[in-house]
From TrEMBL:
Pfam families: TetR_N
Span of domain HTH tetR-type: 13-73
Organism, scientific name: Aurantiacibacter zhengii
SUPFAM superfamilies documented for this protein: Homeodomain-like (SSF46689), Tetracyclin repressor-like, C-terminal domain (SSF48498)
Organism placement in taxonomy: Bacteria, Pseudomonadati, Pseudomonadota, Alphaproteobacteria, Sphingomonadales
Keywords: DNA-binding, Repressor, Transcription, Transcription regulation
Gene Ontology MF terms: DNA-binding transcription factor activity; transcription cis-regulatory region binding
Protein name in UniProt: TetR/AcrR family transcriptional regulator
Highest taxon listed in the record's lineage: Bacteria
DNA-binding region: 36-55
InterPro entries: DNA-bd_HTH_TetR-type_CS, Homeodomain-like_sf, HTH-type_TetR-like_transc_reg, HTH_TetR, Tet_transcr_reg_TetR-rel_C_sf
Length: 218
């Protein structure tokens, strides 16, 4: 009996996840406004009216998709940064974490987040702003570390905006399925962002990990 109750309790959560995955894929493909509740229902084997048992509205679906993507991305970033020490290693870990998140299982949700954030109501954006601010603070901390060690010469906030745009929409996102490909793309991004060639970036990272005093970068 306990197992039957557990199965009954988990079924709504499973349905919610199926709806979120289907909606994210359809919003990514057709756009939020182009995807219909009927299409989402058909993709999950439900009737259109059944969706509203799990979500109050189509916009609630959009908000939950974006929330899920943001929270998952923040968790991945914290995991990568937890073992990174030194400004260069932390920058590389941050770039790798961002690429890992947007190229991972929730990649379609991240695409929806980038494109359709503006379609959320002001109240929905306010509810998500805390997570958004936490992610901004992580980036600013890492970029300010680079700035204080003279690896970054430009304004950290402006760099953050352009760097995120490059990571989110750049061609490096294509066909990154292996961890080695993600690491290579992250290293290339970091070297370009700091106006270094890849070999020099690797040397500086190695010196940092060995405990050598960081060098000024012209």
């Amino acid at each position: 009996m306990a197992r039957q109750n557990l199965a009954c309790d988990s079924e709504p959560n499973l349905r919610r996840e199926q709806l979120l995955q289907a909606a994210a894929l359809l919003f990514q493909k057709n756009g939020y406004q182009g995807a219909t509740v009927r299409q989402i229902a058909d993709a999950t084997g439900l009737t259109s009216g059944s969706i509203f048992y799990y979500f109050k509205s189509k916009e609630d679906l959009l908000e939950e998709i974006i929330s899920q993507a943001m929270k998952s991305g923040l968790q991945i970033v914290h995991e990568h940064l937890s073992t990174a020490t030194g400004p260069l290693s932390r920058f590389q870990a941050l770039a790798l974490a961002h690429l890992t998140a947007i190229m991972g299982p929730l990649g379609s949700a991240h695409d929806v987040s980038f494109r359709d954030w503006k379609l959320l109501s002001p109240d929905a954006r306010d509810r998500l702003r805390t997570v958004n601010q936490q992610y901004r603070e992580v980036w600013m901390q890492v970029l300010n570390e680079l700035k204080s060690n003279q690896y970054l010469l430009s304004d950290p906030e402006r760099c953050r905006l352009y760097m995120l745009a490059a990571l989110n929409w750049g061609p490096a996102r294509k066909n990154l399925t292996e961890s080695s490909q993600l690491a290579s793309a992250a290293n290339l991004f970091c070297s370009i962002a700091l106006n270094l060639d890849e070999e020099e970036f690797h040397k500086l990272c190695a010196a940092e990990k060995s405990g050598d005093k960081p060098k000024d970068v012209d």
